[in-house]
Design a protein that fits this description.
The chain is of the alpha/beta class and 237 residues long. Helix content is 41%, strand content 16%. Helix 1 runs parallel beside helix 8. The longest helix is centred in the C-terminal third of the chain and has 21 residues. The structure holds pyridoxal-5'-phosphate. Pyridoxal-5'-phosphate (PLP) binds next to strand 8. Keywords: Pyridoxal phosphate.
Length: 237
């Protein structure tokens, strides 16, 4: 068994155990393997172990990997999530290649993506990113702006509003992690009252996965625990 396969098994087991401990069905929580900076060989090992959903932070790198795997058919098929900050001038590449965008934070970007999403593709699944720790430097919208942006995004036919995402400030204390994630969960529940089709709450990374699951995450984004430490410092965005 490859190291990556072993790591995937451990992460999956941790997700299930954590879910059960807090009375949740492990089937409600999906695993996004964050493969930024990692090689296609590493991704191939994860695919061989059954993983299908991958997260990338850099547009060019992600598109190259998508192209690399494009000719090969997997069952179920691969799905590619863009989880990094997205500049407007790169929106077309995301619209044309990815299945999901986790970092939607402005209407103008949503309108561009809606316009650029190819006719033959399914609508782009989008998550609105919330600046839940209220930090100046972090991307995402302030919670009070969510109703307005969500309503506008829901009107765009080539996008599908699936839910919310956040990257809280780094915090090692479990209770404090949990408190922040619970604020996200309550925003998510509010969103679902208005848009019942919103089914995805993207929360939790290697260092705060347990608190995210306890608060209600439906999609954890895990890099280090699957692929090992990254070789170069990735942006904290
Ligand atoms: C890098 C990254 C992750 C994965 O982080 P790990 O700590 O390696 O699990 C998750 N989400 C986002 C947005 C990232 O940029």
């Amino acid at each position: 068994m490859s190291a990556i396969e072993q790591n995937l098994q451990q992460v999956t087991a941790r997700i299930s155990a954590t879910a059960r401990e807090c009375g949740r069905d492990p089937g409600e929580i999906s695993l996004l393997a964050v493969s930024k900076t990692k090689s296609v060989e590493a991704i191939e090992e994860a695919i061989a172990a059954g993983q299908r959903a991958f997260g990338e932070n850099y547009v060019q790198e992600g598109v190259e990997k998508i192209h690399y795997f494009q000719q090969r058919k997997f069952i179920p098929p691969l799905s590619w999530h863009f989880i990094g900050p997205l500049q407007s001038n790169k929106s077309r590449l995301v619209a044309e290649h990815f299945h999901w965008l986790h970092t939607l934070d402005r209407l103008q970007l949503a309108q561009r993506l809606n316009h650029q999403r190819p006719e033959e593709s399914a609508p782009l699944n989008v998550l609105i990113q919330i600046n839940i720790s209220g930090e100046e430097s972090k991307s995402g919208i302030m919670p009070d702006r969510l109703p307005e942006l969500a309503a506008a995004v829901a009107e765009l036919p080539r996008l599908r509003l699936r839910g919310l995402m956040a990257i809280p400030a780094v915090e090692s204390d479990y209770q404090r992690q949990l408190a922040v994630f619970q604020r996200m969960a309550s925003l998510f529940n509010g969103l679902r009252r208005q848009f019942p089709q919103a089914d995805t709450l993207s929360l939790g990374m290697t260092g705060d996965m347990a608190a995210a699951i306890a608060a209600g995450s439906t999609l954890v984004r895990i890099g280090t625990a699957i692929f090992g430490a990254r070789d170069y410092g990735a942006p904290t965005a």
